[in-house]
C-alpha cells in the first residue's frame, strides 16, 4: 500500500465528498440534481483567491470569508435559477442550472481572467513517513472537510433550523402549513450547499491550479460519487466521494493518468451492476 | 340567526369567497362565520369543493374574489406560512408527517414557529403529554420513527401537532376516515380538547353519525355552492340537502 497515494486520494475524495454532499442537500430539498455544483467549487476557489492573493488576507480567514460569500451566491442562485421555475418540469430547472453554470464560469473568466492561478496553502511543507512524503495540505483538506461534514450533520440533525430545512425537504406543502417560510428554508439549503462546496475550491487551488473550467470535471466526478454512494444519501455522497478519490489516485499511479476518468466510470458501472441503488441507496425506493 | 345566539365575534369569517378552476366552479360565493369553541361541520358529496375550501382558508389557493378575516385581520392576501403562524392549523385526510424524523420532532414541529414558545418549555411538555394521553398515544416511544405508528395513530398525531400550535382555527380534513371505532373516540376526545381551548373547529367528514353527533352547526356544499347552513336538525330536514346528498348517494356508498 502506498501511503502517499492513500493520503492524496483520500483528501481528493473528501473534496469530491463536499461537492457531492452539496448536490445531495439540494437534491433532497427540491428533488433536482444541481448541475452547477461544480461551478460553486470553482467560484468559491476564485473568491478565496481574491481574498488571499489580491487583498492579502491570510488563507484561513480567506476560506471563511469566501464560504460566507458563497452562501450569498447560493441564495442568489436559488432565487434566480430555481425559484421562478419551481412549479415547472424538472427538465426546465436542469437547463436553467446549466445556464447558471455558464454564467458562473464566464463570470469568473471576466472577473479573474482565464490564466490559471494559485494561492497559499493552509498548511505548508511535507511530512516524511518512511519512504513516503506527504504534503501537509492533503492532511489539512481531510481535517477541514471532515470538520465541515460533521458541522453540517449537527446543523441538520440537532438544530431547529436544520429541522425546518428537513421538514421543507420532505414535504414543502406541509411545511408551509405549519408556518415554515418555504422560500427561506430552501434558500438556506442552497446557501449551505454552496458554502461547503465553495470551501472545497479554496482547499484544492494550492495543489491544482484554479481555472474557470475546473467545475465541469469535478462536478462530473461528484455526480459519479453520488450514484456510487446511493442517490440522495448524505453518507453515500461522502463514501462515494472517497471511492472516486481513491480510484483516481491509485488508478492514475498504477494504470494510467489519461484514463483516470474512465476508471472512475468503470467502478461506477461495476457498483451499479452489483447494487443498482448504490451503496446507501435505500432512500430512493422510499421516494419513488 | 346563529350570530344572535352567539354574541362573540367570529374567529374566521369568509365573505363571498369564489374560486374557479378553468370553467369549474369550486367555490361559489362562500360566506362562513366560525366562532371560538364551536364545531362547524362541512359536508357534501365527493368533489363538492370541501378540500378546495380548506385550501382557500390556508392560502394554498388564492381566492378569485371575496375576502377572508381571521380575528378581524384581513388575510385574503397573506401567504400560507404566515397564516399558519397567525393561527390556522390543518390536518390531512392522509397524514402528512416527516417520515425521516422521530415522533417528538414531528409533534413539536410548528408549535415553536406558531407561538414562539421554546421547545423545551415545561408547559409545552405538559400540554404535549396531556394531548398524547387524550389521543391514546401515551405509551409510544417519542424517539421512535413515525413509521412505527399505525395509520390511525398518525392521524391522531397530526391533530396533536396542530393543537400544540394553539391555533385559533383548526381545520380537520376527514379525521375519522379509515379509523376504527376506538380510534374515532380518541378523535372526538381531541376535538373536545380543542373546543375547551376555545378553538374554532372546521370538520370535514363523511361519517354522518360523527358529524351529526358533535357539530354545533354545519354547512352543505354541492358543486361549490353552499346549499344550506344550520344546526344538524335543520340540515337533516332540509329538502335540498336530502336531494343532493343525504338521500340516495349515502346508501349506495356504504
Summed up, what is this model?
The complex is a heterodimer of chains A (288) and B (254). Chain A is mainly alpha-helical and 288 residues long. Helix content of chain A is 74%, strand content 3%.
**What is the CATH topology descriptor of chain A?**
ABC transporter involved in vitamin B12 uptake, BtuC
What is the top-level CATH class of chain A?
Answer: Mainly Alpha
Strand order of the largest sheet of chain B: 6-7-8-3-9-10
- The termini of chain A sit apart by 41 Å
The side-by-side strand order for the widest beta sheet of chain A comes to 1-2
Structural class of chain B: alpha/beta
**CATH fold assignment of the domain at 79-227 in chain B:** Rossmann fold
Strand content of chain B: 15-25%
Name the quaternary structure. heterodimer
> What is the N-to-C order of secondary-structure elements of chain B (H for helix, E for strand)?
HEEEHEEHEHHHHEHEHEEHHH
Radius of gyration of chain B: 18 Å
Q: What is the helix content of chain B? A: 25-40%
Specify the biggest β-sheet of chain B. Answer: 6 strands, mixed
Q: Report the count of strand segments of chain B.
A: 10
Overall mean pLDDT of chain B: 82
Q: Helix content range of the residues of chain A, please?
A: over 70%
Low-pLDDT residue intervals, each spanning 5 or more residues of chain B? 249-254
Please give the largest β-sheet of chain A: 2 strands, antiparallel
Cα distance spanning the termini of chain B: 34 Å
